[in-house]
Amino acid sequence: MPEQKPENAQPVPEKDTRIFDLNTEDTDQAMAVCGKIIQDGGTVVFPTETVYGLGANALSTDAVEQIYAAKGRPGDNPLIVHIYDIHQLQDLVAEVPAKAKKLAEAYWPGPLTMIMKRSDKIPDSVTAGLDTVGIRFPSHPAAHAFLEASDRPVAAPSANISGRPSPTKGQHVLEDMLGKVDAILIADESKVGLESTVIDMTTEPPTVYRPGGVTVEDIKKVIGEVKVSPGAVKPVELKEVRSPGMKYRHYAPKGKMVIARGSLDEMADKINAGIRKLKPDQKGAVLATDETLDRYHKGIILSLGSRKDPSEMAHKLFDCLRAFDDLGATDIFAEDIPVTNDTLALINRLYKAAGYTFI
Questions:
Q1: Which of 24-33, 88-97, 228-237 is least confident?
Q2: d(CA 206, CA 220)
Q3: Distance between CA atoms of 182 and 180, rounded to whole angstroms?
Q4: Hey, is 173 helix, strand or coil?
Q5: Which of 53, 160, 166, 259 is deepest in the core (most CB within 10 A)?
Q6: Strands of the sheet with 300-303, listed across from one edge
């Protein structure tokens, strides 16, 4: 599905973006400045353990609308609200279900977003008009310091142009957000590399809409039965979007991307045949794994890592997709990965990046 733009979208005025490298600069000063920007209604890119986020005051409609403008994000795609203290929940949600309390005790702070009934303090611009809101308590120390300095709940999707691969490195957010936001906080590369798990705590059993670093089995160990949305691994036409990453094309490189299915031999044969058929003005690329790299000899060839290490593959996915963009790939052939509890989040992003196109 092609990316849609917000209704009545206006050109975003160029901003004088302040850049703070937390590896070299005074962290306390950087947090104080960026916290004040949020309080004054501005926008700040900040690191988390999943991907970089583009934040604004979640309680201000005017501030939140700057997020949609900077990203070119559809207005019916809800945002996640980030907190630094569990006690902030009481102002943001109407109630905290018992199972949500158990998950918070087990996995907060961490890469888990829980959807609950919203309070009347959350504006419609955050929730796309829904009566629910997604809340996350990130574990990255810089994210915690930034949120605490802001002293506001911060609405924040990934800090990329809508539809592009999410940013896991400082250079990624500079490519996408420089001149579009008021400030950028740069830290180390994101540890997880994929966005947070999103689970709806208002359904029974709770429903995982977006798989992530906290796996389905991790959740089951704490609260028992959960459902997994069909949209986690296949395209589903939805009228109502209850979570980010469900409706529109996401994570996509600039080049056309397809996924080869079959045995390792069959995938290699299909990909090599596809590379051979490309025209001289097309630049082919292969997204392989450590175990299959030697099967390819033409085009740009990158490895996701070892098939035995799903966390490494997940960590490297968005970086590889952006590398293909940097290298000018026009046609990208990716190997399929078996779906397991540990690879579900990776598969979700990989399939969406390819627009569910298979050979």
A1: 228-237
A2: 10
A3: 7
A4: helix
A5: 53
A6: 256-260, 331-335, 284-288, 300-303
Longest dimension (CA), the chain: 60
- Residues 99, 101, 106, CA angle at the centre, nearest 5°? 95
Whose tokens are 């990934």? That residue is 158
Mutual angle of helices 344-353 and 310-326, in 10-degree steps: 20
Cβ–Cβ < 8 Å for 22, 186? yes
Q: How confident is the model at residue 232 (pLDDT cuts 50, 70, 90)?
A: confident
Which spans in the chain are helix H? 27-39, 61-71, 89-92, 98-107, 124-127, 141-150, 170-177, 216-223, 264-276, 310-326, 344-353
- The pairing of strands 207-210 and 197-200 is antiparallel
Token digits for 333? 């052939």
Using only the alpha carbons of the chain, give its radius of gyration.
Answer: 20
- Reference 298, options 321, 326, 273; nearest CA is 273
Helices (H), 118-231: 124-127, 141-150, 170-177, 216-223
Structure-derived torsion over alpha carbons of residues 290, 358, 242, 222, reported in degrees to the nearest 10: -40
Q: What pLDDT, on a 0 to 100 scale, did the predictor assign at position 51?
A: 97
For 47, residues 6+ apart whose C-beta sits below 8 A from its C-beta are: 22, 53, 140, 142, 143, 185, 186, 187, 188, 190
pTM: 0.92
Q: Which residues contact 256 (CB under 8 A, 6 or more apart)?
A: 330, 331, 332
pLDDT score of 240 more than 90: no
Burial 156-180 (b: 16+ CB within 10 A, else e): bbbbbbbbbbbbbbbebbbbbbeeb
